[in-house]
Write a structure and sequence with these properties.
Structural class: alpha/beta
CATH topology of the largest domain: Rossmann fold
Radius of gyration: 20 Å
Number of helices: 10
CATH class of the largest domain: Alpha Beta
Distance between the termini: 54 Å
Number of domains: 2
Length: about 290
């Protein structure tokens, strides 16, 4: 255990040294576990040399933007909140398998414009070591925009970032992952403002009932609920099931179903290679 603690401390020291070597950075800040930890450390090391940028978008859970605003304000970090609408990006709403390529490309364009205006050379984000093993077309967009991943450069995993976040007393230390609401739509299903609103309302209904880790997958008239397997019995209990069903119906779904495999992040990626997709999963933009 002592050797593990030493290894994590060494990684954090590497992170702090790397940030100091950059001098000034603009951080794409979502308010999640990774970017919050990175922002805190960057502010400790660079002070006014770090600027956070968050996009305000209909595809982002409102609670994440609220938390990002709160943390940046609490820490005294310069924080840019820029209106953005991914649904206006050509090709995005069709929901191809490389949808995240378009989203991240737009985000990094915004970051690059503001970094240039502020005279900041480096754009950084909260990608961690574990993210490299998942299907993430957004990494291609980051590479094309010369975005650096300080947590990867320091070899920090998600679990290690949570440990270090607890040591810093960050409220995000145990925050569940919160990807954009578009990730609730199967690839090839059009993403619409109405659909996003339905998903957000349905997930809010689950969280108000204490389901912290949850997803509502959008299948047209059907809402497919994912919660951890151990919480399915409570979900189906008499006191929860009926009022929850009614509230999700009120959100706009006709049918409500439960995924018996339970919650798993990125479950819609399971369909890649098994069903026809509108674009190949290479991360490349579709041919014009």
């Amino acid at each position: 255990m002592e050797s593990d603690a030493t290894a994590i401390a060494d990684k954090e020291a590497r992170l702090r040294s790397g940030l100091r070597s950059m001098g000034r950075v603009l951080l794409a800040f979502s308010g999640g576990v990774d970017s919050a930890y990175l922002l805190k450390v960057a502010h400790q090391e660079l002070g006014e040399g770090v600027v956070a940028l968050t996009t305000s978008s209909p595809t982002a859970p409102q609670g994440d933007e609220d938390l990002a605003r709160s943390l940046a304000g609490e820490w005294g970090v310069e924080h840019l909140v820029i209106d953005a609408n991914e649904l206006e990006i050509p090709g995005y709403a069709a929901n191809p398998t490389n949808r995240c390529y378009f989203c991240k490309g737009s985000l990094y364009d915004i970051c690059r414009n503001h970094a240039g205006r502020l005279g900041i050379e480096w754009i950084v984000d909260g990608v961690n070591r574990d993210d490299l093993g998942d299907y993430r077309p957004g990494l291609k967009a980051a590479e094309e925009n010369n975005v650096r991943h300080p947590l990867v450069e320091s070899d920090l995993s998600k679990d290690e970032i949570r440990v270090l976040s607890r040591r810093l007393g960050l409220v995000t230390a145990d925050k569940p992952s919160s990807p954009c609401l578009s990730s609730r739509f199967p690839y090839g299903t059009e993403i619409t403002p109405e659909g996003l609103h339905k998903v957000a309302a349905a997930e809010d209904a689950l969280r108000r009932r204490g389901f912290v880790e949850c997803r509502v997958r959008y299948h047209g008239t059907v809402a497919r609920i994912e919660v951890p397997v151990v919480e399915i019995p409570r979900l189906l209990s008499d006191e929860v099931r009926e009022p929850l069903w009614q509230e999700i119906r009120d959100a706009g779904f006709l049918y409500v179903t439960v995924d018996l495999r339970g919650f798993r992040s990125g479950s819609l990626n399971e369909a890649i290679g098994r069903t026809p997709a509108s674009t190949p999963p290479s991360g490349d933009p579709p041919a014009s």
